[in-house]
Write a structure and sequence with these properties.
heterodimer; A: mainly beta; seven-stranded mixed β-sheet; four-stranded antiparallel β-sheet; B: mainly beta; 11 strands; 0% helix; globular
């Protein structure tokens, strides 16, 4: 069974630009969650999508948004990039969502210059 | 306000000995706890979990202990192996107020880098 895939793996952008990251969950998984990992803050929850609906949201500004498609694939968008948005963005999928094991992708390393 | 704390950023242990990773939490609504392991350039991998109705859960070399009164959990790895060298994250979840079904979200600690020396 293929794991969670994320594209692109690496991305370099400049301040003010916007970026879209993509996540394909494990087949059959309907829940996709997004996390931001930085050295200072660790892993922070961004949002969770389940059956194309945002079900949970973390404490991030509105510049961070996401969506989920009918095939459960998910995209995350960050607009008006800031230097502090440089981070590893991880997506995780699970069959139903909830606290049980989530399967993480390898992440997208975003660098904002 | 950091609700899940891993106060040791790093831990070094000899191969064959016990590794003990600690985690403290402040939110009394947390009712499910998980440990993840992360290698460089890979996403975190689920290791073991425990529900708040239990105080211990064991899976092979990994045991998680939960002390609800102290709001503390720990992960024991026995015996430690060099391949266990990784960053370990503690995570906790609570059912969101007003939500139904599976409205959970995970709150992670900042991680502890475990190094197991041969």
């Amino acid at each position: 069974k293929a794991g969670v895939t994320q594209t692109p793996r690496y991305l370099i952008k400049t301040r003010g630009q916007q970026v879209t990251l993509s996540c394909s969950p494990i087949s059959g998984h309907r829940s996709v969650s997004w996390y931001q990992q930085t050295p200072g803050q660790g892993l922070q929850f961004l949002f969770e999508y389940f059956s194309e609906t945002q079900r949970n949201k973390g404490n991030f500004p509105g510049r961070f948004s996401g969506r989920q498609f009918s095939n459960s694939r998910s995209e995350m968008n960050v607009s008006t990039l800031e230097l502090g948005d440089s981070a590893l963005y991880l997506c995780a999928s699970s069959r139903r969502g909830g606290p049980n094991e989530q399967f993480f992708g390898p992440g997208t390393r975003l660098t904002v210059l | 306000d950091q609700q899940v704390k891993q106060n040791s950023p790093s831990l070094s242990v000899q191969e064959g000995r016990i590794s003990i990773l600690n985690c403290d939490y402040t939110n009394s609504m947390f009712d499910y706890f998980l440990w993840y392991k992360k290698y460089p350039a890979e996403g975190p991998t689920f290791l073991i979990s425990i529900s708040s109705i239990k105080d211990k859960n064991e899976d092979g070399r990994f045991t998680v202990f939960l002390n609800k009164s102290a709001k503390h959990l720990s992960l024991h790895i026995v015996p430690s192996q060099p391949g266990d060298s990784a960053v370990y994250f503690c995570a906790a979840s609570a059912r969101e107020a007003g939500g139904g079904g599976s409205n959970y979200k995970l709150t992670f600690g900042k991680g502890t880098l475990l190094t197991v020396n041969p």
